[in-house]
Write a structure and sequence with these properties.
The chain is an all-alpha fold. It is built from eight helices and no strands. The protein starts with a helix and ends with a helix.
């Protein structure tokens, strides 16, 4: 065992002597980082084009949906909590929905719809907008004016708001 330790010590001494005889390592100068290469200009130009394109798309989408924002403002301006004339409010909601649908889907397709067909059309174009549940309220509002109908009116306003936001 002593003999093995002696051999290891001799090998280590020889390695140390050899390492001392080596010259120091040559290290190259660090490579400088710079954006002055053509690839960075191309990448920057592509990024700028992409951001410009996405901005234009967002601006067009914003302009295209202006009628929705205006419709929501008009719907929110209806004073449903204090009004005693449910029929007037329901008529305003009907007119608003018809105008928005004509703007989106065209006069030829929408103008002739009324009654249950109109409500089915609204349901088919909106996401989770059950207008058919409010058929009695919508069609017979002139004859109804109780607290129950006022609660139903609030549901109708919420369904209309949801339709304005979600119709395709």
């Amino acid at each position: 065992m002593i003999h093995l330790l002696h051999i290891h010590a001799i090998v280590l001494i020889k390695l140390k002597v050899q390492l001392d005889e080596l010259e120091p390592l040559f290290e190259p100068q660090p490579i400088l980082f710079s954006f002055n290469t053509p690839a960075w200009y191309i990448l920057g130009g592509l990024l700028l084009l992409f951001l410009s394109y996405m901005s234009i798309i967002q601006i067009k989408k914003y302009k295209k949906n202006r009628y929705r924002r205006d419709g929501l403002k008009l719907l929110n301006s209806l004073d449903t909590s204090k009004s005693k004339d449910i029929n007037s409010i329901i008529n305003q909601i009907r007119i608003l929905l018809k105008q928005l649908a004509i703007r989106k889907y065209g006069r030829q397709k929408v103008a002739s719809l009324y009654g249950e067909d109109w409500l089915k059309f609204l349901e088919s174009k909106g996401k989770d907008t059950p207008f058919l549940q409010n058929t009695i309220l919508i069609n017979q509002a002139t004859f109804l004016n109780t607290e129950k109908e006022k609660k139903e009116l609030m549901k109708l306003v919420e369904v209309s708001r949801k339709w304005i936001k979600t119709h395709a």
